[in-house]
Amino acid sequence: QVQLVESGGGLVQPGGSLRLSCAASGSISSINDMGWYRQAPGKQRELVATITSGGSTNYADSVKGRFTISRDNAKNTVYLQMNSLKPEDTAVYYCRARIVVVTTQRQYRYWGQGTQVTVSS
Questions:
Q1: Rounded to an integer, what distance in angstroms lies between the CA atom of residue 80 and that of residue 51?
Q2: What are the pLDDT digits (tens) for 100-116?
Q3: What is the spatial distance between Cα 58 and Cα 120, in angstroms, rounded to a whole number?
């Protein structure tokens, strides 16, 4: 059994900052790439940022220069530092990870439950 639990969402004014965290727990053998996605009302879920186990990162053009993804492999945790937030960043943010489980040594994709980020004055 593997779980991803996100935290850190909330309400922030335009120009403000938030830091999201996502911790993986359970029967984990190893974690490959991890990432953040978001879904705004009436829109499809979209990629925000990803990070490989080696630390290589990839960002959506809309967040480059404002958001930073990082991970702590010892804690099985991925972070998303969001600065200079805009109203259009308002969405539910989901964590995703590709995890090799202990029992089968096979890789599966897991999603967190989502955390709401609202940017409004």
A1: 10
A2: 999 999 999 999 999 99
A3: 27
pLDDT digits (tens, 9 = 90+) for 22-54: 999 999 999 999 999 999 999 999 999 999 999
Q: Any idea what the Cα angle at residue 63 is, between residues 61 and 67, rounded to 5°? A: 140
Task: Write down the H helix ranges in 24-101.
Answer: none
CA dihedral over 113, 90, 77, 71, signed as positive or negative: positive
* CA proximity to 95, closest of 119, 76, 118: 76
71-77: which pairs have CB atoms within 8 A and are 24 or more residues apart? 71/34, 73/31, 75/23, 76/23, 76/24, 76/25, 76/28, 76/31, 77/21, 77/22, 77/23, 77/24
Rounded CA separation 13/118 (Å): 8
